[in-house]
Amino acid sequence: MKKTLTALLPLCFLLLLALSPRPSLAQCTLCKTNVEASRTEKDGYDISGLNKGILYMMAAPYILGGTVAFFWYRNVRRKRQPAPEAR
């Protein structure tokens, strides 16, 4: 067991290192185009709408996943409770 763990630990570390996200300076094409267009149109450009849109898109999967997890947890908990005894 200890030999297997010792052999798998570096392999798991290398796998996590290979799959880790790389830092990037790029944006998606649409976001970059909107920011550049608003920069050229006015001197004081406002990108708060763009930031709010990014936060909205980021929050949606978490809300959906949390809802699914809640109903799944509730369903599993109901199945584990013993049925009331009938007299």
From TrEMBL:
It comes from the Bacteria. The chain crosses the membrane at residues 54-73. It comes from Hymenobacter edaphi. Keywords: Membrane, Signal, Transmembrane, Transmembrane helix. The lineage of its organism: Bacteria, Pseudomonadati, Bacteroidota, Cytophagia, Cytophagales. Residues 1-26 form the signal peptide. This is Uncharacterized protein.
